[in-house]
Design brief:
single chain; mainly alpha; about 350 residues
């Protein structure tokens, strides 16, 4: 296990370097004036881009430019984002917590309903309950997420006025910036609990409902299919037949014995899906005007903000690399039968 972890950790820098070089190489198709935003430290420098181009050698060959940019990134300097009107590192720090909140709420829904529907479908194999569960999961997966999001927004906000778009209401914004509300972590739900402010907590949570439900419906179908297949495989094994022969209750057989082994593939899938959500749910955050990292990436792309695009892409790449490693380690920790060597 230790040797495997060391090998994977040694590969991480190589993978990240490959991704960063590919991203940086793609930007070389743009003019030096557009790439200058990677190096400015102050918006006033945007008025003297030719000086920035000369200072940082933006007309040099790509390898020299990449080396200078990589050294800058290693110092935590990702450039200035004109679209966010702040340094890219600060923009990521500001928008990322909102996406983490959305991803956590979504994954709770995805895992709960995915596991429940998967077990329900497997236990009632080839009966009407199984057919219904599969129709619901496949139907949710087949519906385009942008269509589903717009329908939910139109119904629950446009028609019923229940769940407003955005990250929070104007009243919550006033409370946050009043000086009495302390930002301990940057995660508004957690900070609301730490401040003992139930009004802010409920308001922020209500703004998470529609985007989280949209992502859940679009994501839990795969979880249902994996859980169903895994559960059917476990229910057909000898230890399950032995447990039934001993007279154990069906609930004990399904959840205590077969369920523990069947959920192992789901853990890996959940880890991958969670990392994908952390990378920014671009479409959903745009539809619901949610102030997350995905929306920051969209705005940066719309305004040709090269520094913002590179910073966003680099963050997503690092998250996926680390997420895959953590998923593999979690899989081996849960299932002791796996031998990595």
């Amino acid at each position: 296990m230790v040797r495997y972890l060391i090998r994977r950790l040694m590969m991480l820098p190589l993978v990240v370097l490959g991704v960063t070089f590919l991203l940086f190489f793609l930007t070389q198709r743009l003019s030096p004036e557009m790439r200058a935003s990677l190096y400015v430290k102050d918006p006033r420098q945007m008025g003297s881009l030719e000086e920035v181009i000369r200072q940082y050698g933006l007309r040099d060959n790509v390898f020299k430019q990449y080396g200078r940019w990589l050294a800058q990134v290693a110092r935590g300097d990702l450039g200035y984002s004109p679209s966010a009107n702040m340094p890219v590192a600060q923009a990521i720090k500001q928008y990322f917590p909102a996406t983490v909140q959305l991803a956590l709420v979504t994954m709770v829904l995805v895992v709960f309903f995915g596991v429940w529907f998967g077990v329900f479908s497997a236990v009632h194999k080839d009966r009407w309950q199984d057919t219904l569960a599969r129709v619901i999961s496949v139907g949710g997966f087949s519906l385009p997420i942008f269509v589903l999001g717009l329908l939910l927004l139109m119904l629950f906000y446009g028609k019923l006025g229940w769940f407003a778009p955005g990250g929070y209401s104007l009243q919550t914004d006033l409370i946050i910036h009043s000086g009495s509300f302390k930002m301990y972590t940057g995660f508004l739900l957690l900070d609301a609990v730490l401040n003992g402010n139930g009004r802010v907590f409920i308001d922020v949570l209500s703004h998470l409902v529609l985007p989280a439900v949209t992502l859940c419906i679009g994501s839990f179908a795969l979880m249902v299919r994996v859980m169903r297949s895994s559960m059917l495989e476990e229910l057909g094994k000898d230890y399950v037949r032995t447990a039934r022969a001993k007279g154990l209750l069906p609930r004990q057989v399904v959840y205590k014995h077969a369920g523990k082994n069947a959920i192992i593939p789901v853990i890996t899938l959940a880890g991958i899906q969670f990392i994908r959500l952390l990378g920014g749910t671009v479409i959903v955050e745009t539809i619901f005007d949610y102030p997350g990292i995905g929306r920051f990436g969209v705005i940066a792309a719309q305004q040709l903000d090269i520094a913002g695009i590179l910073g966003f892409s680099l963050m997503v790449a690092v998250l996926f690399v680390l997420g895959n490693l953590l998923s593999d380690l979690l899989y081996t920790a849960v299932d002791p039968r796996i031998r990595l060597d």
